[in-house]
Amino acid sequence: MGAEKPGLVEELKLELDERGNLKTQDYMTSVEGIFAAGDMRRGQSLVVWAISEGREAARAVDVWLMGSSSLEAKDESFVHIEQRA
What we know:
FAD/NAD(P)-binding domain
């Protein structure tokens, strides 16, 4: 099923993967500054995955905005955001 196409997905021209979910790298979609997590990124799954994804996405946003994050990560290798110059 994947992400709902009408609305923001279409309007922002967000890229989808082969399963119809939003394509992301380090939780950022194909549009810089637009992040996704949970069902939009993984597809329908357990709520514990959605919670975990939300926390990791929040950390990715923090790193993208601030250049670093004090938020706990699952594993430092899990989020690979390049530092902004």
